[in-house]
Design goal:
The complex is a heterodimer. Chain A is mainly α. Chain A contains eleven helices and no strands. The N and C termini of chain B lie far apart (37 Å). Classes of the chains: A mainly alpha, B alpha/beta.
Chain lengths: 289, 260
């Protein structure tokens, strides 16, 4: 771009005003940078306007109905100072970490099995379709009856919500292995284990990570609802308790913290993907639920 | 000089597909093919689409079973994929997540081979196919012609008895194709592997083959087997303007185009 503008300037007739040339060149060189700045500025402006409207609207309604951003911020600070937020945040991360890891391992293994074996697919598909379509959060009372109140109940809920997306997308990715690659593996006598390890699973990696991203969002719902319904601990506990006390500001502060949990999880997943499979950009994969 | 031993024997082979939902209406892809291929011979299967040439190649490779008849390689009946087969696919069929070297390593059966012997075998075939400078490359960084070169190196790395090629050059531009044809002819001339090539390019068949098996469609069958009375390996410069080659070419073309 810069080279281009130089050329334009260089071909100008020698006699023309140097200062005008200089200004025109600077304006052209600045154009792409300004474009990026404009786009970023627009986004910041959007957030600022949204917060402004929220602030003004919040100031004119009953504070129980809607807390203003400034009150949410001070609630956030006092939650940190009281020592309530840190442990709650870590607990939610812990439930999510354990539940999501279990969902990922089970989901990938079952997905590989269903992707490679049409018999397994026929046997398991009805259940996967059924549970995928069922609002499994409704199983919460039953899970508590099974496991009792506490950490493990919430982990079970998290797994139940997250595992299906991983299964479905892993199955899809394994089944999507190109025919010629499978023929190639057969011609050269690759064992089933070798086909899975070296052909089918690497092929499925973009699908697996796409499934994991969806599963992460669902698992986080499981974590928060689990904490709200079961132990009243963690971020879900903060949200539930604040709601019960009609304290809108800490409620919203805790919700925003829970979305931070989701963002951190998504970033970790993306870092992992780049580490494990730099060739596999899942942005162009058609994902299923 | 005694006649070279038969390497591949195809006896009365047919391929019939039962069509689900069309009871009794089986589809005959190939009927009654018999063919003897001598050791070191280069055979091309040519014909319009639907003549069953790829079907025949896949049956010889053991990827699909014959419906009737029998195929034997070096006296051993083909039942499933035989040992020591090299296959070059229409698409390069390389593992995108493995380097060129590791794509070759994937197919090398290393019974009793040390790590050094494995690497030496791979290096040997990379040199043979002129890929020694690209061992660490990933397939997507290579051009289509280079990818098929890797496909050939992979097919040869196990020192196969039989090399099967399914239209390996059909996706390449004319110049790349001709250069690769000469390279492949030179390589096969040096190692003398028995080869079957499926192609729909008459010039390619004439350039490579000892014999050209011209096939016809509905149902697929062998129409005529045409001798190419020229020495191998050939170069394009020798083929162009060669009256012998022109005669074969015209004859095969008239058969393929059904001009009789």
């Amino acid at each position: 771009m810069a080279a281009n503008t130089d050329q334009v300037a260089a071909t100008k007739p020698v006699g023309s005003s140097a200062s005008r040339d200089e200004r025109a060149r600077r304006r052209e060189a600045a154009a792409p940078a300004r474009k990026i700045f404009d786009q970023a500025a627009l986004q910041v402006l959007s957030v600022v306007v949204f917060l402004g409207i929220w602030q003004i609207a919040g100031a004119h309604v009953n504070p129980i109905l809607l807390a203003t951003p400034t009150r949410v911020w001070s609630a956030f600070i006092s939650l940190i100072q009281s020592g309530a937020l840190g442990p709650a945040f870590l607990r939610a991360m812990e439930v999510l970490g354990v539940g999501f890891a279990i969902a990922a391992v089970i989901g990938i293994l079952v997905g590989i099995l269903m992707g490679r074996s049409s018999i397994a697919r026929r046997i398991l598909n009805p259940y996967v379709s059924f549970f995928q379509a069922t609002p499994l959060i409704a199983l919460t009372p039953l899970v508590v009856i099974w496991t009792g109140i506490g950490f493990s109940a919430e982990v079970v809920i998290t797994v139940l919500l997250g595992v299906w997306s991983v299964i479905i997308n892993t199955t899809e990715g394994v089944r999507n292995t190109p025919r010629t690659l499978l023929d190639m593996a057969r011609v050269y006598h690759a064992s089933e284990l070798s086909v899975v390890r070296n052909v089918a699973v690497p092929n499925a990696v973009p699908y697996i990570f796409a499934g994991l991203r969806i599963a992460l969002a669902k698992a986080l719902i499981g974590v928060i609802i689990g904490e709200m319904d079961i132990s009243l601990k963690g971020l879900g506990g903060l949200i539930q308790n604040a709601g019960d006390a009609f304290q809108t500001a800490p409620l919203l502060a805790a919700i925003i913290c829970s979305s931070v949990v989701g963002v951190i999880g998504t970033i970790i997943l993306e870092v992992l993907r780049r580490r494990i499979a730099p060739w596999a950009d899942s942005s162009d994969v058609h994902t299923k639920v | 000089m005694s006649a070279p031993a038969t390497c591949i024997a195809v006896r009365d082979v047919s391929k019939i597909y039962e069509r689900p939902g069309h009871r009794g209406e089986a589809f005959t892809a190939l009927t009654n093919v018999s063919l003897d291929i001598a050791e070191g011979e280069f055979i091309s299967l040519i014909g319009a689409s639907g003549c069953g040439k790829t079907t025949l190649l896949r049956m010889i490779s053991g990827l699909i079973p014959a419906s009737t008849g029998e195929i034997a390689i070096n006296g051993k009946r083909v039942d499933g994929v035989p040992d020591r087969i090299g296959f070059v696919f229409q698409e390069p069929a390389l593992l995108p997540w493995r380097s060129v070297r590791d794509n070759l390593a994937f197919v090398l059966r290393r019974k009793g081979m040390s790590a050094e012997q494995v690497q030496a075998a791979i290096d040997d075939k990379l040199r043979l196919t002129n890929l020694q400078d690209f061992a660490g490359y990933y397939p997507q960084a290579l051009s289509g012609g280079m990818q098929q070169r890797v496909g050939l190196a992979r097919a040869l790395v196990g020192d196969p008895d039989v090399l099967l090629m399914d239209e390996p050059l059909s996706a390449l531009d004319a110049f790349t194709r001709r250069r690769l044809q000469e390279d492949i002819a030179g390589i096969l001339g040096a190692i003398g592997t028995t080869t079957i090539l499926v192609t729909h390019d008459v010039d390619e068949a004439v350039f490579f083959s000892d014999r050209i098996v011209v096939m016809g469609a509905s149902p697929g069958s062998v129409r005529e087997i045409v001798n190419v009375p020229l020495g191998r390996p050939r170069r394009h410069a020798e083929i162009v303007g060669n009256p012998e080659a022109a005669k074969v070419r015209d004859h095969v073309l008239s058969l393929v185009l059904d001009l009789h």
